[in-house]
Write a structure and sequence with these properties.
This protein is mainly beta. 12% of the residues lie in helices and 38% in strands.
Length: 228
């Protein structure tokens, strides 16, 4: 009886270990390093992974942050293919999950039961140009939170829309001509260059790391003119 009990206990333990091993193979991890265009590691950069699939997603976006030497690890990922992005907007490295900044060119990795861990080096840079300033009510001077719409002049279908605080900071792809406009509820849309026709507007073109300061005044909708 003791031998049978010992044999049964050994079998149960083996089943538990086998089950644990199987469960471990249903998830994987992505690890790597974020570097800039000079090859230096980027500390405190955000890394984002999105499943490489078409259709709506209900799960939360997965984000992590690099350590002091630019390393990161993202664990407990389903075994599938992923797009991987890195960003550090405070240093001028935009969120390349947006095609406006990446032209929809991004690295991918695939996790499988046989290869559940992927190693990758993500490169950011060169730094974007920066537009910054304030948005105010032209009549009262009150600060106004607004939406910015940027559009590439060479490819009008390449655009991005973003909400900004009244004291705004917007990253612009370096050495790329873009037009932009600013809008807020209750105000007329403001167009850089003055014209609502994008073909008649003067674009902006900022070098890597270049800053352009611009304070924008929005006219209430009962006004008839837009500021340039």
């Amino acid at each position: 009886m003791r031998n049978q009990s010992a044999a049964l206990a050994s079998l149960c333990l083996a089943l538990v270990l086998t089950s644990s091993h199987s469960v471990g193979q249903t998830t994987g991890s992505i690890r790597g390093t974020v570097i800039n265009d000079n090859g230096d590691p980027v500390a405190a950069a955000q890394v984002r992974v999105d499943p490489l699939m078409v259709g709506p997603r209900s799960d939360a976006v997965r984000l992590t942050e690099t350590d002091t030497v630019g390393r990161f690890i993202m664990s407990n990922l389903d075994l599938t293919s992923y797009k991987v992005f890195a960003m550090k907007e405070s240093a001028g490295y935009p969120n390349t999950a947006f095609g406006f900044y990446s032209h929809n060119i991004f690295p991918t990795v695939t996790l499988t039961a046989s290869v559940p861990t992927a190693n990758i080096t993500l490169k950011v840079g060169p730094p974007s140009g920066v537009m910054l300033g304030s948005v105010t009510d032209a009549a009262t001077g009150a600060l106004v939170s607004a939406g910015f719409l940027l559009r590439g002049t060479s490819d009008p279908n390449n655009w991005i829309s973003m909400s900004q605080k009244a004291n705004y900071r917007v990253l612009v792809p370096p050495s790329v001509e873009v037009t932009f406009e600013v809008s807020a509820p209750g105000y007329q849309t403001w167009y850089y260059g003055g014209s609502s026709d994008p073909l008649k507007r003067a674009p902006i073109r900022l070098k890597s790391g270049e800053e352009m300061r611009l304070n924008i005044q929005l006219e209430p909708k009962d006004k008839s003119s837009n500021g340039p």
